[in-house]
């Protein structure tokens, strides 16, 4: 993640970017939300008061009513708070891993497409357009319904359906970078295309890629929650979307089963969206949305 | 198509553009059909077992069924036949619903369109208004509220928002029905029926609109702020036009264009949102059908929906591109 650590790594531009980021209050709020989510996910075994799967005799206990069950219990008497805490792991893991998958594919396709151009570029862009236009949710749903909703499947499906935006962005960056003098110089020095693409140019286009990656995490978390709501989450793990699926059957009886997981999804998505906006402004003040 | 309207000065550029867009859509649609075919071929479970049942059948009978359904032919031949079937409207048979898939989809499509079209109209109208109000006084309290509202719309999943609406307006306040398409016990007629439909639609539409309301609000605000600084607006202001006339007559016309088209480009998301919201409210449309089909393992229906939705998205994108070209005199090809 692009944070203080990478910004503090030295160069004057990244220091200036960090300074701009710090002054951006919404971006900071995003960072705080993301860090909080990461902490909850990492520390889940230590901070969750109960085993999320352990049932008890106090089913449908409202929040603050039964000792030890701060956010109440579900229809099987399981602790809602512990489930919400463990759910953070699934959301964050699927979100980040899927976004990483999408970024890797997008950077690879976009860079070679933009760098080489010609019919090769034309072909790759047709494929990109196809992936962009095909309805992500319906296709992800079918693939997961057919081939199983394990964690790895979820990550791969969401990742493989999410790369086009990155590819287009990276391609446009390479189109302009490949005409710059430093690339010409590299060519004159006899550098291979692979070196030019992945070592010389790539670091220069990473800033906007990180922005899109952050927004991709938000989208992936939403998509994972949507699939979970359709009953297509990892059956061995507790997830926010899955909790909402269960809650749907008990709307009349247990509002807390729906309200708390939903707030968590919204805050997680909001966090990565705000972080993305903040990074946009930090990377390029002229692209500011406000 | 009013291709002749391309009086852009460069000799029917628009007509050629429209034609090219149509030609581009063909491989996309074929690609979708191929993806569907691949998914069918990879789908878990042998279709033969499905057709014959789970008991031991004589080998020659199995072979005969296999041949009857053309499953003994090589894959490329089956693909060509599948494409032919799809183009004739044969999307397979839903065993759970005992109906051809296409009939089933058409039956449910109307209900989904009812939700989606209401949402699109409402979200565009309200979003434009809110965006204008926000852009009129940048950084005012109202502007901040509109921006915060937009951020919430991007972050809150519509299906959860639907649940919250049920909790508030159906469970706690008891004002509106928690789900369904119309009242089951009473048969309303005339105005009473319309009111009954509207009462059932109110919450699903509100849930589905939220996100698009946020998108249109944010986009209207951003593009208005951009347009208001352009030279022709500055020139019009210098000529002494009132701010009101500037905003409503000149700026909004330019600013509304991306707003109208963004709905077209977000069509796939509206479909996904509709599927989720229908499930929350038990609305008997395509989305609810999708949810039910997962549990009945009714794969032909799922694949039929994928095909229908993909082709619709491609066509809507195509039409949006064309609409954009027609509406914006600055676009050249």
* Relative helix content of chain A: over 70%
Question: In angstroms, what separates the terminal alpha carbons of chain A?
Answer: 24 Å
Structural class of chain B: mainly alpha
| Net shape of chain A | elongated
Sheet with most strands: strand arrangement of chain B: 1-2
**Rg from alpha-carbon coordinates of chain A:** 22 Å
Number of strands of chain A: 0
Helix content of chain B: over 70%
What is the end-to-end distance of chain B?
17 Å
Radius of gyration of chain B: 25 Å
Tally of helical runs of chain A: 13
* SSE order of chain B: HHHHEEHHHHHHHHH
Q: Average pLDDT value of chain A?
A: 86
> What percent strand of chain B?
under 5%
Largest interface: chains, residues each? A-B, 44 and 49 residues
- Note the main sheet of chain B: 2 strands, antiparallel
Any low-confidence stretches of chain A, pLDDT <50, length ≥5? Answer: 1-10
Beta-strand share of residues of chain A: under 5%
Strand segment tally of chain B: 2
Care to describe what's here?
The complex is a heterodimer of chains A (290) and B (333). Chain A has 290 residues and is mostly helical. Chain A has helices spanning 4-7, 12-23, 25-47, 80-116, 118-133, 136-147, 151-160, 164-177, 181-188, 193-201, 206-229, 240-248, 255-283. The radius of gyration of chain A is 22 Å and the shape is elongated. The model of chain A is unreliable at 1-10 (pLDDT under 50). A two-stranded antiparallel ribbon of chain B has the order 1-2. At the A-B interface, α5, α6, α11, α12 and α13 of A face α1, α6, α7, α11 and α12 of B.
């Amino acid at each position: 993640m692009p944070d203080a650590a990478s910004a503090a790594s030295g160069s004057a531009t990244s220091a200036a970017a960090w300074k701009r980021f710090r002054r951006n209050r919404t971006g900071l709020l995003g960072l705080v939300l993301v860090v909080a989510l990461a902490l909850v996910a990492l520390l889940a075994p230590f901070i969750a008061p109960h085993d999320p799967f352990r049932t008890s005799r106090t089913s449908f206990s409202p929040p603050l009513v039964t000792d030890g069950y701060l956010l109440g219990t579900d229809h099987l008497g399981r602790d809602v708070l512990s489930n919400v805490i463990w759910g953070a792991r699934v959301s964050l893991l699927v979100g980040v891993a899927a976004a990483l998958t999408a970024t890797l594919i997008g950077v690879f396709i976009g860079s070679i497409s933009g760098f080489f151009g010609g019919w090769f570029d034309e072909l790759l862009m047709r494929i990109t357009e196809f992936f962009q236009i095909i309805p992500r949710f319906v296709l992800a749903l079918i693939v997961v319904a057919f081939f199983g909703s394990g964690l790895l499947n979820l990550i791969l499906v969401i990742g493989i359906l999410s790369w086009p935006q990155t590819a287009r962005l990276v391609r446009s960056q390479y189109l302009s970078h490949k005409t710059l003098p430093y690339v010409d110089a590299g060519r004159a020095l006899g550098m291979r295309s692979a070196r030019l693409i992945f070592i010389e140019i790539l670091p220069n286009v990473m800033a906007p890629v990180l922005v899109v990656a952050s927004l991709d995490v938000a989208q992936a978390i939403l998509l994972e929650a949507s699939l979970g709501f359709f009953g297509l989450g990892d059956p061995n793990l507790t997830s926010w979307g899955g909790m909402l699926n269960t809650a749907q059957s008990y709307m009349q009886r247990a509002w807390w089963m729906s309200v708390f997981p939903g707030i968590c999804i919204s805050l997680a998505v909001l966090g990565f969206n705000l972080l993305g906006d903040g990074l946009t402004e930090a990377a390029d003040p002229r692209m500011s949305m406000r | 198509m009013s291709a002749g309207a391309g009086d852009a000065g460069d000799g029917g550029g628009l007509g050629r553009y429209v034609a090219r867009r149509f030609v581009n859509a063909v491989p996309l649609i074929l690609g979708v059909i191929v993806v569907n075919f691949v998914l069918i071929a990879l789908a878990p479970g042998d279709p033969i077992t499905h057709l014959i049942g789970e008991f031991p059948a004589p080998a020659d009978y199995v072979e005969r069924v296999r041949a009857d359904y053309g499953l003994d032919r090589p894959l490329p031949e089956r693909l060509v036949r599948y494409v032919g079937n799809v183009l004739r409207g044969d999307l397979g048979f839903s065993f759970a619903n005992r109906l051809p898939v296409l009939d089933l989809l058409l039956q449910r499509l109307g209900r989904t369109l009812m939700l989606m079209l209401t949402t699109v109209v409402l979200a565009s109208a309200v979003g434009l208004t809110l965006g204008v109000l926000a852009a009129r006084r940048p950084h005012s309290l109202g502007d901040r509220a509109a921006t915060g509202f937009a951020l919430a719309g991007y972050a809150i999943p519509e299906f959860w928002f639907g649940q919250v609406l049920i909790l508030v307006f159906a469970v706690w306040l008891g004002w509106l029905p928690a789900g369904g398409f119309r009242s089951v016990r009473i048969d309303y007629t005339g105005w009473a029926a319309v009111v009954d439909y509207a009462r059932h639609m109110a919450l699903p539409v509100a849930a589905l609109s939220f996100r698009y309301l946020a998108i249109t609000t944010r986009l209207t605000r951003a593009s208005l702020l951009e347009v208001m600084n352009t030279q022709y607006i500055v020139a019009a202001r210098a000529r002494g036009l009132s701010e009101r006339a500037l905003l409503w007559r000149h700026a909004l016309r330019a600013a509304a264009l991306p707003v109208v088209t963004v709905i077209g480009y977000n069509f796939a998301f509206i479909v996904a949102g509709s599927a989720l919201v229908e499930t929350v409210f038990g609305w008997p449309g395509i989305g609810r059908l999708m949810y039910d089909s997962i549990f009945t393992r009714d794969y032909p229906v799922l694949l039929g929906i994928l095909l229908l939705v993909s082709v619709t998205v491609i066509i809507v994108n195509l039409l949006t591109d064309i609409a954009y070209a027609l509406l914006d005199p600055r676009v050249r090809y």
